[in-house]
């Protein structure tokens, strides 16, 4: 039976003979797509084609960003592991739904969009288990100890995604996003790839697609933002739209005075000059307290709004600078929201004076003194807090949530009707999507996209801003009807953004957000090198918390870790901010410590858990960053760590000389297909037991650690349990983890120094990512004495395993006392020396 909405009368394949190629994938006369003669998809329609990698033209040879020779050589040497699927239909269509075969009885991991801008994982074994807007499917092929990837692609003016079918068909949706852009024939709308290592599979597949499409670059080819190994603060959860200079100043001050200097600041939504269509075109909106009200606003000028514009140079440097009280600020904000609710109920019957008091302002302008605006504020922040390296500001991809207001900026902007793509009709309810559909988008002519970004960014760069958080990215598909479709519109905007990023922000000063769709990753990431890999950190569910604040926290970790499998091939995964005084703050902090990206919080002013932050952040505002990005271990890939009642989320990562495994109990909430939303599963909110092994660490993913795969013994330190033990390479440790809790295990290879002595450094035991403190490690031997030379970043107690008592330990040129016990535990103190590395020299006879 044909799947719903399938375009009828498919054209038979021009070549009816069995596909012959150098690929390990094949399409048989019987309609089976097989890998090494193992059927993956059956009942493949005869309008579907399979081509080997080398038979399809690739774009890299005519592109301005050709792949480096090492990537090209790698792809060519493994070309037999890949193949393309295509299809043909009789009549041209802008949206084609076509089966590529039935998937029956084979376990898979998939990534699908549950909202316009956010994606997450889903597991199953049949085509009917798939979710709408699936971006990729990784199949388990245990018959040959391998994995196969099904990856929908961009082809010319069309993009593809996978949809489910009740008859187990895998439905490929090939769409342009415009009824004026139609097609019939496609040769490479899906890519297939096989590998015996799931992490190598992802890397090799995206290398192949990088060569094929030529529209993006891999993460390994790009420069990362300066903030990647720093601690920062974001204004959002502290102020929301009420952000203003005085609160920002006191927020940074609060961290600095307590020994946690933010190295970057993100001024989130609330600084821009925006208004609604019914308001005066060149004045700030006076109605931004209603839920989602900013989503109906459009940008009317590129400079900062009145709250920031009125800042005068030196204001916050004075002895009598304005003070800030977060509690009073929050209370005033609540009153404003209550007034907005009252106003909406009375439909405008409130007096003008009362209704216009919609922002909080602590600045009093001094007569005769020139306004300094954002430039003066940034300058004063850097003067007072010299450790503040970077200041980022927020903006939406189209300018503001509602785009640019026509007739205000000199750009050709038109309010364009926004329409939800058909594939998103069963996505999770989203206020943002509803508001954008309600108000439309003030879309700048695609021919002026580069001018839009240059206008915004050149001004920001001039006032001292070093980067931007670009949000609300995946709205272009809403408004692509009259612009050649979603691919053509996206190319125009992303090309403009890329040019501006290179010119104004050093080529890397950008965090992408609300971007989790293949259009973005295939078309926008030539230059962008960092992006969010999860939905927002929600300190509580705005729709009500069935389990207090707990139920959404594990969901966030699942988003971030599984999305990183594919998104991490192109961008540095950013796990988003959290609040250090939240009930689940430690749960989040543990994951951020090993995520491999920046650590930043959105604490309210003066409301911090410094004891917790001390396990993440060094006194100079840097962090102990892992060398890779955190990913689920192999035994988690095809399981459900959210509501199967048995699976712990295990994340592996690498430091320079050790591995790390984080074990998190995320059970208790997740996607509910029947209602198209995330919901609580309280029956699974319970303690879970699992096994951890040194073998869980994917040592080969970095050249420096690949040698540790052959290590016979490891020292493992359990951070929360404060327990050090020795295990063999494949030996397993049993753990029981409470709900919304975790354990972090530092896995250090044991080195045999001589016939008697063995040694394994753990690192700073007071830091969650203990092993990240070891910047250099060298073993030596001199006149019957074995030596260990270590360079340490940070301060605290350094922990090691040493089977023999050291003869002496020299720290920064001086002998120091140490503690050693017969069970091999060795400890000594490391002082803070201003951010410099401490030199440790251990002698063991």
From TrEMBL:
Source domain of life: Eukaryota
Keywords annotated in UniProt: Carbohydrate metabolism
A Pfam cross-reference name: Raffinose_syn
EC numbers, comma separated: 2.4.1.82
GO molecular function: galactinol-sucrose galactosyltransferase activity
InterPro entries noted in UniProt: Aldolase_TIM (IPR013785), GH (IPR017853), Glycosyl_hydrolases_36 (IPR008811)
The reaction(s) this protein catalyses: alpha-D-galactosyl-(1->3)-1D-myo-inositol + sucrose = raffinose + myo-inositol
Family classification: Belongs to the glycosyl hydrolases 36 family.
Protein name, per record: galactinol--sucrose galactosyltransferase
């Amino acid at each position: 039976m044909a799947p719903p909405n399938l375009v009828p009368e498919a054209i038979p394949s021009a070549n009816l003979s069995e596909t012959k190629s150098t690929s390990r994938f094949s399409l048989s006369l019987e309609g089976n797509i097989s890998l090494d003669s193992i059927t993956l998809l059956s009942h493949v329609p005869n309008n579907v084609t399979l081509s080997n990698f080398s038979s399809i033209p690739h774009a890299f040879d005519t592109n301005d960003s050709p792949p480096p020779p090492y990537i090209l050589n790698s792809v060519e040497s493994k070309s037999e592991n890949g193949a393309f699927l295509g299809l043909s239909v009789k009549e041209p269509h802008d949206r084609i739904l076509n089966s590529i075969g039935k998937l029956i009885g084979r376990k898979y991991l998939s990534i699908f969009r549950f909202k316009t801008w956010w994606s997450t994982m889903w597991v199953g074994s049949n085509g009917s288990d798939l979710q709408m807007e699936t971006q990729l499917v990784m199949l388990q092929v245990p018959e040959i100890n391998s994995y196969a990837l099904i990856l929908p692609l961009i082809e010319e003016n069309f993009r593809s995604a996978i949809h489910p079918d009740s008859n187990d068909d895998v439905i490929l949706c090939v769409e342009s996003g415009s009824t004026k852009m139609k097609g019939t024939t496609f040769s490479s709308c899906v890519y297939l790839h096989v590998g015996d290592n799931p992490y190598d599979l992802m890397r090799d597949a995206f290398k192949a697609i990088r060569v094929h499409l030529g529209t993006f670059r891999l993460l390994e080819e790009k420069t990362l933002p300066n903030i990647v190994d720093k601690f920062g603060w974001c204004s959002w959860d502290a102020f929301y739209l009420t952000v203003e200079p005085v609160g920002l100043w006191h927020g940074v001050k609060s961290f600095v005075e307590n020994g946690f200097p933010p190295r970057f600041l993100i001024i989130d939504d609330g600084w821009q000059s925006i208004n609604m269509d019914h308001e005066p075109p060149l004045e700030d909106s006076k109605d931004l307290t209603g839920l989602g009200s900013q989503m109906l606003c459009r940008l009317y000028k590129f400079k900062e709004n009145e709250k920031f514009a009125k800042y005068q140079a030196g204001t916050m440097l004075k002895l009598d600078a304005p003070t800030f009280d977060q509690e009073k600020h929050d209370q005033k904000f609540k009153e404003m929201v209550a007034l907005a609710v009252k106003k909406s109920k009375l439909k405008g019957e409130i007096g003008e004076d009362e209704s216009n008091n919609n922002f909080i302002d602590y600045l009093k302008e001094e007569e005769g003194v020139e306004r300094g605006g954002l430039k003066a504020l940034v300058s004063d922040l850097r003067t007072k807090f010299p450790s503040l390296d970077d200041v980022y500001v927020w903006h939406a991809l189209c300018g503001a949530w509602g785009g640019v207001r026509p007739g205000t900026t000199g750009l050709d902007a038109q309010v364009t009707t926004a329409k939800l793509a058909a594939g998103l009709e069963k996505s999770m309810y989203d206020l943002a999507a509803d508001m954008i559909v309600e108000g439309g988008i003030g879309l700048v002519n695609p021919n002026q996209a580069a001018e839009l970004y240059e206008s915004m960014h050149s001004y920001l760069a001039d006032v001292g801003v070093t980067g931007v958080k670009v949000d609300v990215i995946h709205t272009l598909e809403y408004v692509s009807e009259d612009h050649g479709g979603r691919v053509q519109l996206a190319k125009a905007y992303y090309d403009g953004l890329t040019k501006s990023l290179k010119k104004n922000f050093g080529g890397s000063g950008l965090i992408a957000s609300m971007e989790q769709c293949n259009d973005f990753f295939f078309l926008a990431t030539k230059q962008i090198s960092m992006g969010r890999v999860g939905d927002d950190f929600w300190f509580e569910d705005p729709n009500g918390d069935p389990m207090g604040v707990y139920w959404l926290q594990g969901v966030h970790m699942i988003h971030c870790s599984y999305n990183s499998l594919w998104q991490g091939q192109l961008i540095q995964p950013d796990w988003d901010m959290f609040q250090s005084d939240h009930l689940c703050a430690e749960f989040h902090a543990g994951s951020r410590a090993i995520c491999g990206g920046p650590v930043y919080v959105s604490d309210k002013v003066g409301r911090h858990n410094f004891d917790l932050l001390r396990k993440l952040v060094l006194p100079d505002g840097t962090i102990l960053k892992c060398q890779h990005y955190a990913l689920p271990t192999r035994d988690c890939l095809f399981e459900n760590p959210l509501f199967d009642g048995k699976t712990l989320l295990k994340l592996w990562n690498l430091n320079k000389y050790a591995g790390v495994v984080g074990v998190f109990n995320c059970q208790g909430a997740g996607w509910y297909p029947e209602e198209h939303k995330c919901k609580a599963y309280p029956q699974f909110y319970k303690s879970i037991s699992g096994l951890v092994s040194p073998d869980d660490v994917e040592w080969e993913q970095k050249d420096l650690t690949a040698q540790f795969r052959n290590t016979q013994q490891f020292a493992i330190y359990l951070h929360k349990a404060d327990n050090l033990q020795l295990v063999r390479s494949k030996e397993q440790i049993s753990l029981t983890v409470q709900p919304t809790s975790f354990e972090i295990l530092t896995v250090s290879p044991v080195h045999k120094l001589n016939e008697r002595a063995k040694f394994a450094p753990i690192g700073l035991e007071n830091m969650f990512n203990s092993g990240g403190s070891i910047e250099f490690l060298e073993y030596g031997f001199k006149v019957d004495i074995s030596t260990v030379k270590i360079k340490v970043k940070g301060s605290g107690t350094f922990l090691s395993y040493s089977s023999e008592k050291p003869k002496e330990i020299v720290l920064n040129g001086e002998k120091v006392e140490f503690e050693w016990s017969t069970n091999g535990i060795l400890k000594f103190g490391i002082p803070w020396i201003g951010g410099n590395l401490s030199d440790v020299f251990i002698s063991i006879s």
